[in-house]
Design goal:
The chain is an alpha+beta fold and 294 residues long. It is built from ten helices and 20 strands.
Amino acid sequence: MSDSQMVIIFNPVAGRRRANLLWRVLDILVANGVRLDLAETHRAGHAEALAREASRRGEQMVVAAGGDGTIAEVANGLMGSTARLGVIPLGTANVLAHELGLPFAPKSVAAALAFGRTRTLWPGLANGPDGVRVFVQMLGVGFDAHVVHNLPFPLKKMFGKGAYVMQSLRELARYNFPVIRLRIDDTVTETGSVIISKGRLYGGRFRLAADAAPGEPGFSVVLFDHTGPGAALMYGTALPLNLLGHAPGVRHVRAQRIDFLQNIAVPAQTDGDDAGPSPLWVCNAPGPIQVVMG
């Protein structure tokens, strides 16, 4: 373990509640001779810039200490490089960490980062009018993204995952549930909401897409055809019961590219962060990244 170096990109906002975990991991690494370069993020997109700078310097491991959004930013900065992506899960849901079976206990996290065994992850790209956004776990368009867009940070900070439930109930009467028109590979269809997933899990450890293959190109597209407040309540109830993927009106399609065809703006979210309006199209990243597993 000695005479090695890691760059740690830390999101102090995502990690405030679990800062103790971060410092315990770092203490163990330093005690075992690992040299650390710790960089805090200060704004949206900063983690991506820091990761890109680290990869250009030739760093071989860049660690994202934060939630799924921070991990996605760091992955974006590492695209096209040989640097490995490490994870210290500090977020609210930590969906990717659960998806890949990454450790959470400080000693296990430190050991995983030091050992350095990797697993392939093939991200997706959301191509919008303002540029390209990488996502590592999923992209949602519709009601769930509307909830993410309007979720106050103090509520999320105070209640964690429970804040999403509270905000969902608030938004039932405010969201107008527009029809989403999209092309999935060569097939045009319509639906009420859509989740384009790289992994099996959604919202934490809840099962959604059993056919997902995180290490391969392509997506599990989950379409929610029933719409309106009643349907949203039904889907929300099915989630913690691990029944969402099999709920009435839910379709599953494997695809390589998804184009959004509607003319109206529908909110989008990537890896639990607000992503503005729905992208123009979604496709595979040019290549995979290697995630450190331990």
